[in-house]
Amino acid sequence: MNIVKIVIAGPRGKMGSEAVKLVQETEGYELVAVLDHKNDGGMLSEFPGFSGLDIPVFADISACLKASEPDVLIDLTTPEVGMHHTKTALQYGVRPVVGTTGFTKENLKELEELCHEKGIGAIIAPNFALGAVLMMKFSQMAGKYFNDVEIIEMHHDQKLDAPSGTAVKTAEMIAEVRETKVQGHPNEKETIEGARGADYDGMHIHSVRLPGLIAHQQVMFGASGQTLTIKHDSYNRASFMSGVKIAVDTVLKIDTLVYGLENIIE
Ligand SMILES: NC(=O)C1=CN([C@@H]2O[C@H](COP(=O)(O)OP(=O)(O)OC[C@H]3O[C@@H](n4cnc5c(N)ncnc54)[C@H](OP(=O)(O)O)[C@@H]3O)[C@@H](O)[C@H]2O)C=CC1
Ligand SMILES: O=C(O)C1=N[C@H](C(=O)O)C[C@H](O)C1
């Protein structure tokens, strides 16, 4: 069996630490290094929760990739850093699997071109939970028949980006099939700024942030005399890991940028 050598960026984070577990527990995967902006040198085992993991820690991505020569970089950090990591990985011939959200359309275009130039694949998945991917696909199906849509995404209060990557992706997928419509009353006025949420092609996106939440989204469709609500909840970060595994296995076989897990699951 060919061993897949993996580097994880953001290993102490909520998602990164779950990904460390996934890689450690998966036959055929080897965690060869981790990338941690606050620590350089030493071993992952020196941090709480990672006892026994003698995996080298690097602060600098180039030094990390040169020393560990991975096949795949899993990035679970922040948007600016994630973009830098993804570009650097591609430049070193390492295939990125990116869960970090907040990438712009321009970022995606640039990465698509870099994948083409280097002839290797990358996967950027705003949501790795298979239920969430289905929620997005079902919402796209519904968007063909209902053009009044409100997306309500709800997350823990430590989340940096709003709207969530999942909400943006959902709106993009619905927009591919939905007849454009400016929703609500043509003369509606916000008496408190932001009351109607963010506007994507006339659809509204509302971001809720509360302690106690993990990752949740409702997509509500309305038409005369009826509503349809499509809802997904992640109750822990383990819910994302089967999708991370699918992405790692798939990125080894592709030579383009894939944005969204819905493009690679059957
Ligand atoms: N695609 C998906 O299915 C999912 C995606 N996400 C996304 O993943 C990302 C991480 O989320 P989450 O784990 O909850 O966030 P956390 O804040 O828990 O983790 C982020 C980690 O990145 C580290 N980090 C920050 N800057 C750097 C850097 N320059 N170099 C290396 N590491 C860095 C942080 O370290 P420190 O705290 O020390 O600064 C922290 O350990 C977010 O963008 C989130 O939206 C989250 C869940 C699911
Ligand atoms: O930050 C999170 O937690 C999550 N981020 C992703 C997003 O922005 O959609 C995926 C999931 O919703 C959890």
UniProtKB/TrEMBL annotation:
GO terms for cellular component: cytosol. The active site is at 155 (proton donor/acceptor), 159 (proton donor). SUPFAM superfamilies: Glyceraldehyde-3-phosphate dehydrogenase-like, C-terminal domain, NAD(P)-binding Rossmann-fold domains. NCBIfam families: dapB. The keyword S-adenosyl-L-methionine does not apply. This is 4-hydroxy-tetrahydrodipicolinate reductase. NAD(+) binds at residues 10-15, 99-101, 125-128. Its EC number is 1.17.1.8. Gene3D superfamilies: Dihydrodipicolinate Reductase, domain 2 (3.30.360.10), NAD(P)-binding Rossmann-like Domain (3.40.50.720). Catalyzes the conversion of 4-hydroxy-tetrahydrodipicolinate (HTPA) to tetrahydrodipicolinate. It is an enzyme of class 1 (oxidoreductase). NADP(+) binds at residue 38. GO terms for biological process: diaminopimelate biosynthetic process; lysine biosynthetic process via diaminopimelate. (S)-2,3,4,5-tetrahydrodipicolinate binds at residues 156, 165-166.
